[in-house]
Amino acid sequence: MTAITPVNPQEVAQSLSQYEASYAAIKQRGLKLDMTRGKPSNEQLDLANELMSALGPSDYKAADGTDTRNYGGLDGLPEMKAIFAELLETSPQSVIVGGASSLTMMHDAVVRALLHGVPDGKGPWAREKIKFLCPAPGYDRHFAICQHHGIEMITVDLDKDGPDMAAVEQLVAGDASIKGMWCVPKYSNPTGETYSASVVERLAAMKTAAPDFRLFWDNAYAVHDLEATTDPLVEILGACAKAGNPNRPIEFASTSKISFAGAGVAVMASSAANVADAKKHLAIQSIGPDKVNQLRHVRFFKDAAGVRAHMQKHAALLRPKFEAVSRIFERELAGTGLAAWTKPRGGYFVSLDTLDGCASEVVKLADEAGVKLTPAGATFPLGKDPRNRNIRVAPSLPPASQVETAMEVVALCVKLASARKLKA
Ligand SMILES: Cc1ncc(COP(=O)(O)O)c(C=O)c1O
Hints:
By secondary structure, the protein is of the alpha/beta class. The chain contains 14 helices and 13 strands.
């Protein structure tokens, strides 16, 4: 995002009393709007209600004869693997289907590496102090995994095309304790941007001092387009294999924002060596995942094309909400130089940048006016945005009319916080 400089700082400062008056009036309205988390709305969840009855009382056999009611099938039903493989543009052998949450699979992959190490490595990562690169603004729960397990986080800037690759290449080449990097490569949380082909190829090919360096490739929004066309993304397993680093990426995704957020199906995909290693550990952890849920997903979606067609219905519900965010920010803030915001073509979030030092004030002001936003700083490691300027806007849950009202409040809070800062 471009640097933010007020176009007319004097005029903004002089408007302070007018903004204070508008803010006092908005407070009187007693609003109660929640824009904190990127949850699907009820209407989106309703799109998949047929999942509830997708399996008749005697429909429990998978295509290969597996009785989905019983134990077994550690890496998932072949037909579920085939759907995920096609969506992630990889092969079914590269795929392990998990339970309902990809975050669980990411967490467990990190913990397995800490306790046991990974192929190409020299034992458990936890033997030394290790570090992860964290492109930011990014996903707070990735950073929480690192914080929880004592992994030091190094922030790198996330630009329009992906992470600042010059910084990334220099860091990983010079420090063998950097073992991992979080990436949300498509419609990133929260900026909504997609990594360019050149960034993905550089990530795949870069020299790392740690031979067992891993990209934690969270492709959570792989099929979550808002427009008729999708952002192209270079397929990571193939790119890393081509560059001679087949074990580098571990990819994750799920149907949380395709079917049901609380009862979807998650997946990881990686090289043969990583898949074999993960399965060795998974066999200790479980006698098999919920294959009944996998089968009902297979019956409901039928194939990858069925998933894509379903995602168009999500897009139709989400688009007006994202348009409301753009429309209000454009109307209230364009040309002021007080803020910059992303206009994503997919995913679940809009990223709003204020003047340096203003984000926490904007979130506080909005909260006091009845609009709850994700806490300022949440998009950075340890919850600390060094420039205190980034705010994640999550428009999916409330109706479009409420998103519009909430954004009017946020835009006013941006002006008020900016005017207070410029006057000071
Ligand atoms: C980037 C990213 N990864 C993962 C998740 C959660 O995935 P799951 O529901 O599969 O655990 C989210 C949810 O907001 C997300 O934004």
